[in-house]
Amino acid sequence: MEQFISLTLGGVVNGSVYAAFALALVLIWRSTRIVNFAQGSMAAATTFIAVAVIDAGGSYWLALVVALLSGLVMGALIERVVIRPVEGGPELNAVIVTLGLFVAIQGIVALVAGVDERAFVPPFSTVGYEVREGFTLLSLSRNSIWTVGAVLVTMLALIALFRFTRLGLAMRASAFGQEVARLLGVRVGRMLTLGWALAAAVGALAGMLIAGDVSFIGPTFMDTLIVFGFVAAVLGGLDSPIGAVVGGLLLGLALNYVRGYLDDSLLGMAALVILVVVLLVRPGGLFSTTAARRA
């Protein structure tokens, strides 16, 4: 029973990390209808910027703010300079460009910061809470609570943005029908740029949370999380922030049970099986709607 409780709590924490990355994918999909495969390398770049701030004597919280602002600027620049020229063409063009960006940004990070792993100190203690003598919940610490809380707050903020603000409505209109949105007075170009900027900022937050969870970072430290985050987004539904969080939590629980009761080497296979089953049974994800699929 104690093992099950520990695995469950660990799954929730790991799932929150996957959910953070999935939220960035959902945000850019809802605002631009593009799956950004470069999201992981962009998050890694902003995390290394945050590390530079910490190395210069800044606090974690200052580094977090700098990472978020760096993400905003990076996302806006990438949309304007790299993505905008191919947005009017076939949808596959933008996807191929994001794959190229993934390789390019990762190479730039390795060139500037080096390929060696660097320690990353999380903002809170990673020591698990002791329930009773001899039984410590290793997966439940102050840092894990911060991770879960940050993801939930981000999810609520995105839901509020898209459901209750004119800005969110304009972003969704620009993604679904640019010509109609322009006729209604929406500045489509600005909305697409804003979508990329906000998604990159959420990705920067995900990078900081993941770095605090793994404690060591390198140019490729986001690679595994890219796969799991994508599976979480598809599992919950690319149109749903709630789905991204639920998908991340479900995936985190499933993979942690596989890790605890079977073997670590089966994690990749388990994620693939979950992805295939979801695509076969409910291609739009658990939180998809008829309207979203028709769009």
From TrEMBL:
One Pfam match, by short name?
A: BPD_transp_2
InterPro entries named among the record's database cross-references: ABC_transp_permease, BCAA_transport_permease
GO BP:
amino acid transport
Question: What topology does it adopt in the membrane?
Answer: Multi-pass membrane protein
Enumerate the transmembrane spans: 6-27, 34-54, 60-82, 94-115, 145-164, 191-210, 242-260, 266-287
Q: Which domain of life is it from?
A: Bacteria
- List the Gene Ontology MF annotations in alphabetical order: transmembrane transporter activity
Cellular component GO terms, alphabetically? plasma membrane
In which family does this protein belong, per the annotation? Belongs to the binding-protein-dependent transport system permease family. LivHM subfamily.
What's the name of the protein?
Branched-chain amino acid transport system permease protein
Q: Which organism is it from?
A: Trujillonella endophytica
Mind giving the lineage of the organism this protein is from? Bacteria, Bacillati, Actinomycetota, Actinomycetes, Geodermatophilales
